[in-house]
Amino acid sequence: MDPSAAARVRAALAELPPEIATTDPDILAGYARDQSRFTPSETPAAMLAPRTTDEVASAMAALRRHGVTVVPRGAGSGLSGAANATAESVVLSLHRMDAILEVDPTNRLAVVQPGVVTAALRDRASSAGLAYPPDPGSVEFATVGGNVATNAGGMCCVKYGVTGDFVLGLEVVLADGRVVRTGRRTVKGVAGYDLTHLFVGSEGTLGVITEVTVRLVPAPGPAHTLVASFAALPDAGRTVTAIVDAGLTPSMLEILDRTTVRAVDAMSGMGLGDDVHALLLVQSDDPDADEVLARVEGLCEQHGAADIATSADRAEGAMLLEARRLALPALERLGDWLLDDVSVPRSRIAELIAFVEEVGARSGLTIGVFGHAGDGNLHPTIIFDDADPAARAAARGAFDEITERALHLGGTITGEHGVGRLKSGWLAVEQGPVGMELHASVKAALDPAGILNPFAVMPREAAGSR
Amino acid sequence: MDPSAAARVRAALAELPPEIATTDPDILAGYARDQSRFTPSETPAAMLAPRTTDEVASAMAALRRHGVTVVPRGAGSGLSGAANATAESVVLSLHRMDAILEVDPTNRLAVVQPGVVTAALRDRASSAGLAYPPDPGSVEFATVGGNVATNAGGMCCVKYGVTGDFVLGLEVVLADGRVVRTGRRTVKGVAGYDLTHLFVGSEGTLGVITEVTVRLVPAPGPAHTLVASFAALPDAGRTVTAIVDAGLTPSMLEILDRTTVRAVDAMSGMGLGDDVHALLLVQSDDPDADEVLARVEGLCEQHGAADIATSADRAEGAMLLEARRLALPALERLGDWLLDDVSVPRSRIAELIAFVEEVGARSGLTIGVFGHAGDGNLHPTIIFDDADPAARAAARGAFDEITERALHLGGTITGEHGVGRLKSGWLAVEQGPVGMELHASVKAALDPAGILNPFAVMPREAAGSR
Prior knowledge:
Largest sheet of chain A: 8 strands, antiparallel
CATH architecture of one domain in chain A: 3-Layer(aba) Sandwich
Keywords (chains A, B): FAD, Flavoprotein, Oxidoreductase
Organism (chains A, B): Nocardiopsis sediminis
Helix content of chain A: 25-40%
Shape of chain A: globular
Strand content of chain A: 15-25%
Radius of gyration of chain A: 23 Å
InterPro entries (chains A, B): FAD-bd_oxidored_4_C, FAD-bd_PCMH, FAD-bd_PCMH-like_sf, FAD-bd_PCMH_sub2, FAD-linked_Oxase-like_C, FAD-linked_OxidoTrans_Type4, Oxid_FAD_bind_N, Vanillyl_alc_oxidase_C-sub2
Low-confidence stretches of chain A: 461-466
Cofactor (chains A, B): FAD
Oligomer: homodimer
Number of helices of chain A: 15
CATH topology of one domain in chain A: Vanillyl-alcohol Oxidase, Chain A, domain 3
Largest interface: A-B, 89 and 89 residues
CATH class of one domain in chain A: Alpha Beta
Protein name (chains A, B): FAD-binding oxidoreductase
C-alpha cells in the first residue's frame, strides 16, 4: 500500500470508535475475498464492524473525508468477487447488525438488520405462520443484506421470484454518510423514483444497506416432489418447455446434466446410471400439488423419460432431491472449479447445455451443468487444475465462451450471482455503450468520489492480485 | 408564451418531419391535461406523435438542443397531472407506436410498443392462453407505456402485483436522444443496476419509454365471487385483517364505505340499504377457489357480516361486483370530485376510513371511500362544488388532511396514481430531505438540462394555471 493511502486510512480510523475497527492482519486475512474464483483481491487495510446505523454513517463520513475506498461485506459467501478487498480499502462488515427488528403477520412484512442470516429470517417468518421464500444455496450462512446487495436467487424463484421481489424498503447510508429511507411498509406505493430497487443488486457500489423491510407470504402447503431421468438431453429440454407451456408453475424445476449426474454417482454411489443424460427435479407446493405433479409426470412420459419417481412425503421428497443437493459438492471433488451463472430464455436451456458439452469436448475440460431449468438460470461448472497455467487459461476461455453463448441465445451474463469483479468486463458487452454511460451517470450521482466498492460491477482498471 | 420560447419550439420543430408535429390549437387543446383535478395545466406549444424509436430519438435530440421542455404522454388517463402540459412545452404522445411486437408463450413474455392499449395486451395474452394481470380502472383506454410510466395498479394487485412487477425490460430514449435498452428477456437477471425499475413509475421525468417487455403468467382459473355487507365499519376492517391472517390471498379484496354504498343505491336502485356501513367484495381464482371463499365466508360471519352472497358463476359474479364498478360513477353524480389515492398497512384500513368519515362530518363535505382493501390502497373521493371557492378550499384541505393521516398511519401518499403535479408537495414530506436530494441527484444524472416533464414528481415552482 502506498504510504499516503495508509495515512488516509489511519486518519479515518482515528475519528471512529476504536472498538469497531481492527487492523489485526490475522483477522484482516479473512476479509480479503468472497467465495469466487478468478477474481483479484488483497488483504484490506482495516475492517470496520459498526453496531448501529449511526456508526455506519460516521464511518462513511470519515472514510469519505479522507478519500478511503470502502468494500461493504455481508457473509462473504458471494461468487463473483463483489466483496473482494484491495490493499488500500477498508472492509465494512455488517455482521454485528444482526437483529430481526419486527415481524408483522397482518401486514405480512419483517424489518431486519442487514447482518441477519437469511435462514434465521426464514425460520422466524415460519414461526409466525408465514414464509420468506428466497433460498440461495448459501441460505444457511449468507445474510439478508448481502442477498439484497446481490439480488440473490435460489431454487424457489421459478414460482416466487428473487430477493428483490421481496424488498419493500431500505435504510441506506450513502457514500458521504447521509442516511436515507426508501420504499415503504405498504403493499403498494408509487411515491417517487424506485430508489429501493436501484440499491437492490448494486453490490455495495451505491450505498451501504443498514435496514431491510421485506414482504412475507403465506406459508405454502407441503411440497410434492418428482424426479425424472432422461436418456437424451433434448428430451429433458422439451419437457421443461412442455411444463411451462401447460401453464404449470412448479415451486422448483431443476436440471442436472450427464456430467453432474456422473459426479454425483461417483461421490454417493447413488447409482443413477451412465445412461442418464439429464435429470429433472420438480416440486409443487400448490394446493393441488398432486394434480400438478400428475400432469408433470404425464409430460415427462410423453417426452421419453426413462425413470420417474414421485413422493408426497417430505422426508422421501428430500431423498429424491439428494442428487441436486450433491451437485456442486460432487463436482468440487473432481478438481478446482469455476462456477458460471447465466440465464437464457427457458426454451433455450437444452441448446445451452449442448453447447457446454461441445466446449467441454473441444477443450478437454470436465464441465458439469446444473441449475434452475424453470427460469433458465444455469450454472455450468468448469473443473480444472489450478496449478496448471494452461488449464487455468482453458477454464477461463471456456467460461467466456459459455457466457457469450448465453448472451447470443437471448440471455444474460448473470442470473443470480451478480457481476462483481468476475464479470465486470462482460457487463459492457451486455449493456452496450449507452447502458454503460447510464450506469456511470447513476454511480457518479450517488457516489461522486467513487469510494464505494470501486472495482465491482463497472469495468475499471483492475486492482489487487489474486 | 414568451417569444424566445416560441422561437425555440419553432426551431426544434423545423428539424423534425412535419408529419409528426402539430400546432393546430384545436388539437393541442386536447393535449393540455390528463384526468386529474386541482392540477395546473396549459395548452402546449406543439404536439409530436412519432412513429418510431428513431423519430422519438431525433425529436428528443432536437428539443434538447433548443432547450424545449417535453411532456411525454400515453392516453392521458392519469389522475395526478403527470401528463399536464405547460405553454412552453411540447407534448410527446406515443399513441402512434401501438404495435404488439411479439408474444412468446414458452418464455411467457410479450414485447409491445408504449401506445398499445392495456386491454389489447390483456386480450392478446389471453388468446395465447396466458394472462397479463395489471388491471387499472382505465384498462380499456390507458396504454402500456403510460401504465409503466406511472407504475399503475388495479384490483388484481393483492394477488398479482402492480405493473412494475411485470416489466422485464425497456427501451428508453434519454433526454438527449440516446437510446438505451434495459433489463432482459429472461426470468432472472442481475447484470448491473436495475435501471428498468428506475424508469418504471418515473412519470416521464427520466426518459421516454419506446418499448416494453412484459412478463406474462398462466391464465388463472375462473374466479369465484363473494360479497358481504357489514352494519359496522370496524367489523369489515377486522374481516380484512382476518382474511390476511388466515393466509388467504384472494385475487380481489375490495371495500366500499357507507357513503359510497348510499351513492350506488341512489344511482342504481340496487337497494343495498341504509344499514350497510361497509361492503366487502372478494374474488379468488385459486385452483381451490371454492374452499378459499368458504373460509372467507366463515370469517365474514364470525366478524358480524349482515348479508353474504357468493357465486361460482362468472356472469353472476359480475353482477355481485356491480356495486364496485359503479362506485366512482355514483360518487361523480353527486358533484365535482377530487380523488385521493393513499395506501396504508392493511391493518389500518378501518382507522383511515373512520378518519375520513370524521373529516367529512367536520367539513360538511361528502367523502366516499372505496378501494383495494386487500393491499391497503384506498381512494377517498371528495365531493364538492367547483364553482364555490370556499368549497374548493375545503376539498383541498380535506384531501391534504387525509393524505397526512395516511402517512401518519405508516402509509404512503400514493398507492397507484402517482405523484404527478397533484402531490409533488407531499413527496418531500414522505421522502424527507435526504430522499429528495437523492431524487434530485438521479434526475440531474439522467436529465441534466431538466427538459423532461420538469413540473412532475419533484416539487418545483408550479407552472401553468388551471
